[in-house]
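Lab notebook, bench 4. Still working through the backlog of constructs that have no structural model yet. Next entry is a single chain of 61 residues. Request: give me the structure tokens for it.
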Amino acid sequence: MATKSAPNAAARPCPICGKPAVAEHRPFCSPRCRQVDLHRWLTGAYAVPVVEEDGAEDLDG
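Model written out:
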């Protein structure tokens, strides 16, 4: 059974520049925006900050 994508998936804007997404590069509008997103992932721009709680190191020993 093949799964179909949502009919409004192409209507979503590019997450990088906001232009309409192109099916070939979905969810982006162009190869450039796809590369910009990849660069952000590889350089850690999308990293989630972590705050260590007090007493966390007490659990080890």
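Notes after review: The chain is about 20% helix and 0% strand. The CA atoms of residues 21 and 29 lie 4 Å apart. Flag for follow-up if needed.
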